[in-house]
Amino acid sequence: MSVAAGERLPQSVSVIQRGLDVLAATQDTEGSWYGDYGGPQFLIPIYVAGLHVMGRTPEPEQRDGLIAYLRNHQNADGGWGLDVEAPSQVFTSVLNYVALRLLGVGKDDAGLRRARQWFLPRGGPLGSGAWGKIILALLGLYEYGGLQPVPPELWLLPESLPFHPSRLWCHCRMVYLPMSWLYGRRARAPETPLLAAIRQEIFDGGYGQVDWVAARERVSPTDVFTPRTFWLKAANQVMYGYERLAGKQLRARALDFALEQIRAEDEATHYICIGPINKVLNMVVWHFVNPDGPEVRAHLERLPDYFYEGDDGVRMNGYNSSELWDTAFAVQAVAATGETGRHRRMLEEAARFIEANQVLEDTREPQRFFRHPSKGGWPFSTRDHGWPISDCTAEGLKASLVLEPLGLNRVPQARLQDAVQLILSMQNEDGGWATYELQRGPKVLELLNPSDVFSTIMVDVSYVECTSACVQALAAWRKHHPVPDARVDRAISRGVEFIRRTQREDGSWMGSWGVCFTYGTWFGVMGLIAAGASPDDMALRRATAFLRSYQRADGAWSEVVESCRQARWVEGKQGHAVNTSWALLTLAAAGEGGSDAAQRGVRWLRERQQEDGRWPPEPIAGIFNRTCAIHYDAYLRIFPVWALAVCDKR
């Protein structure tokens, strides 16, 4: 049975069956679940700016969709937030204003007038967070002398130094890599009448009168989540001094080195790149190196990977997709329902996708290009993306092992073993797992965070979610492959120690990639259970007590992105099906699936389901770097079904 949005199903069909039918109906032809992974409000303007620098514009149909999306998500005060649910910031407000102007919207447009009224009193570009200023400098709407320095010569420093760029979290270093090249070249779009007009519109006062040295340290309070530390300011002063003395030969050598790294990233990811920001910036770098060359053409061919059209317009996703991640969870959810025979075709197609998207080889010269081994891993999205992640590899392995007894797993045993070996290679000294690679730099590098608007971007530290997923996967492998393996046993033991050590005093774990304590606590508990914790374990009892304390009177759970930003529970206005599902999965795993708290949550979740089998839209449940919300399109179709399957199979 399949079901389209809005179609009614017979009332006799159970809640779980209806949910599974929706899941089956929305499966992509590739066997995955592809959808909206949007939310950040700075992606579209950086894309539009990059095209403009290259003398290009979006195709008319896409242009109209982008404009619609930006208009639909302009805040009531006239600004734009860091994400579609966030309060306005100068960074995103100025960039979205510029993007709309570059897309052809006139300055007298009512929405743009409201935007100017909001950001001009807050300093306009001078009050923007750091990333906004460098994009504006690339367009010639800001001066390079007003930026925090990003000299490419940093890449030529000895790799043994704790602050060498190779020690940064890979997302951070892959953004600052092309930024350093563009900064070193003082790359700038050709002057046009339109840019000249925009420059006058976004500055409150004469552009020629700006004190660019003072502008370096000026940031609107709206854009400060991570204040600039004494250490960052001191490092900036050293680099300002260097910039006055920088020699042409060393600068040329540094630019060549950065370009070599950019090429390696492009080739390893088939020009998708690790994320949309470095993809656009890498493409712009190649435009300055070789306009209309093969690298530019290759980048343009993969740009569509990042766009998704919804009812509110065309958005740029925060990744080329979340397909592997969602598909692995979907498989586990379907298996939990026991409806594997009825939905065998869905599982067959999912198994095909999982097999097709495991990474089969390491990247070229991984040490030279600062890459962890890749063979055996699964990425967040697709094999072409080329960046395996610890928890994605773990979920891919778990899903494959769930499919094995059903006769549906397509991943050979040798490749499952490769996944295990990769997971083992990624365990940090503290016993936890980070995201893409081992932790490379000291945590104090966060004191040099220059972004203003993001937190925890400098170092890839261990997370409870990644650690739990890896512990669960290794434990599942140990059951599937009961050959004594001291490395696996030791890794699980060390992972459990990390999970226990990071439990908060109130019994919760704070999530870093989902909202927030329901998410982190689900992972914390599941990791301990997988490793053999008994139901009377005090860590589990404290965790379930924490969740019960935040259950709403109607039986639901609800928290919002502010929980992540404030590092404390922030209640939503109404119950959320995704948060409720995570809480129920946690209670069930800890042996409390039949408790009054769990059954009240089940009743709420059942009643919340619509007649067409779906759960209604609700606030964003995903986040990154503690500040920016990002939407997981499939979560509302996966987790409620999974939670009901383990708590209530009516």
TrEMBL record:
Does the entry feature the keyword Ribonucleoprotein, yes or no?
no
Question: Pfam families per the record?
Answer: SQHop_cyclase_C, SQHop_cyclase_N
Q: Which residues form the Squalene cyclase C-terminal domain?
A: 322-646
Q: Which family does it belong to?
A: Belongs to the terpene cyclase/mutase family.
- One of the GO biological process terms: triterpenoid biosynthetic process
- UniProt cross-references to InterPro entries, sorted A to Z: 2-3-oxidosqualene_cyclase, SQ_cyclase_C, SQ_cyclase_N, Squalene_cyclase, Terpene_synthase_CS, Terpenoid_cyclase/PrenylTrfase
- UniProt keyword Repeat, yes or no: yes
Q: Which domain of life is it from?
A: Bacteria
- Give the EC number(s) under which this enzyme is classified: 5.4.99.8
Question: Hey, which pathway is this one from?
Answer: Secondary metabolite biosynthesis; hopanoid biosynthesis
According to the entry, every stretch annotated as the Squalene cyclase N-terminal domain falls at 17-308
Which UniProt keywords are given for this protein, alphabetically ordered? Isomerase, Repeat
Can you name this protein? Cycloartenol synthase
- Please provide, alphabetically and separated by semicolons, the GO molecular function terms listed in this UniProt record: cycloartenol synthase activity
Output the SUPFAM superfamilies linked to this UniProt entry. Terpenoid cyclases/Protein prenyltransferases
Offer a single GO CC term for the protein.
lipid droplet
Q: State the NCBIfam families in the record.
A: osq_cycl, squalene_cyclas
